[in-house]
Amino acid sequence: MRRLLLLTLATGALLSASGTAQNVRLLHDSFEYEPGFIGGVEGGKGFTGTWWSGDNGDWGAVEYPGHDRIGGMLRGKGDHAASYHLLDMASMLEIADNWTLGKDGTTLWFRFSLRRIPGGDEAYGGMVLNWQFQEEALFIGSPFGSDELGIEKPWVTDPVFIPGTNVDFASTLVTRIDFKVGDDRVRVWADPLEAFPETNPGIDETMPDIHFNELKFISGSGSTFGYEFDQVSMWTPSLRPLFSMSSLVGGTDATLRVETLLPGATVQLAYSLSGAGPSGSPYGDLALSPPVTQLPPMTSNGFGVLTTDFPIPFALTGRLLWVQAIELQAGGGGTRSNAIAEVVQ
User: Fold this and answer.
1) CA distance 318 to 343
2) Other beta carbons less than 10 A from residue 139's beta carbon
């Protein structure tokens, strides 16, 4: 019943990289689906639509057990077979550039596990940051040419590998991409101890400009098919301000909370019953569709936190409510928070 449009603020959604910076999970998939072919299946957090896995939906399948204790895993079922899932770009407008990820000045972390199936002989397999119908922006996994783990920009760069790794053993790859003007910096760690490592990476490369709006899982060039993928997630450094909403029940008061504000900041909350936008505003595109209703401006406390009760009419029960906050700037303009959509209970 509940769909978070940008941030999953539940337990485990926020992890600390060094004690001073937080990262927010934008998407996650542990393949908690019924066993069987994945084509046409809807699921995961931070995605939109259903999986596409070939015309018959059978290029990939969910199998059990997975690499962790949650859900199953995705396994490729054919040579050069791929499974695709579009990202919910409407939930990520604050870090998007023309409805793709890769905006200069932003950072993304990726984490997933993979393994070539026991006895498999496919020459490559991995997760692709894909710009739908445009290009494969970055391949992360085991590129063609070695059984080691590595990266490449398909058809553009040569593969770069992490010495000593082996795709026949389940490994967790953590990738950090810093999007810059021009080429982007890509760092990769294999089985790091930290969620967001600060140690020397196995790969530290400059790659041609990366833009994507879809994840693609593919393997091929063999006769015994199959790579396994699990625990897929994407994170970004904590956005400011952070908005959350609780107790959304018709006929009662919901609690709206905005954090990481400047002390004494003026905050504008706005909501829509029509959709996730985007709609233009003096503060940039809002993840709200017209008509947009604004609440009276409010002020954060000395700790940079604003909490307010918001009456929810009983007549809205069962409706989807989109809400977003804006921290207004003294000289004009403002900083948008994440947007949240939630069904009124």
Assistant:
1) 6
2) 25
Determine how many CB atoms are found less than 10 A away from the CB of residue 134: 12
86 Cβ contact list (under 8 Å, min separation 6): 47, 48, 49, 132, 213, 214
Every domain of the chain and the residues it spans: 8-237, 242-343
Q: Positive or negative, the Cα torsion across 214, 215, 220, 224?
A: negative
130-182 pLDDT, tens per residue?
999 999 999 999 999 999 999 999 999 999 999 999 999 999 999 999 999 99
The answer to whether 200 touches 128, Cβ cutoff 8 Å, is no
Can you spell out the DSSP letters for 208-235? S---BSEEEEEEESSSS--EEEEEEEEE
Q: pLDDT band at 39, cuts 50/70/90?
A: very high
Q: Which fold has domain 242-343?
A: Immunoglobulin-like (2.60.40)
Q: Which residue has the tokens 């596990």?
A: 113
CA–CA separation, 316 and 332 (whole Å): 34
Other CB atoms within 10 Å distance of the CB of residue 105: 10
Fold for 8-237, please state it: Jelly Rolls (2.60.120)
- Say how far apart CA 60 and CA 54 lie, in whole Å: 8
Q: Could you tell me the pLDDT band of residue 322, with boundaries at 50, 70 and 90?
A: very high
pLDDT of res. 239: 66
Q: Where are the beta strands (DSSP E) in 157-226?
A: 160-161, 171-178, 184-190, 203-207, 214-220
CB 298 within 8 A of CB 304: no
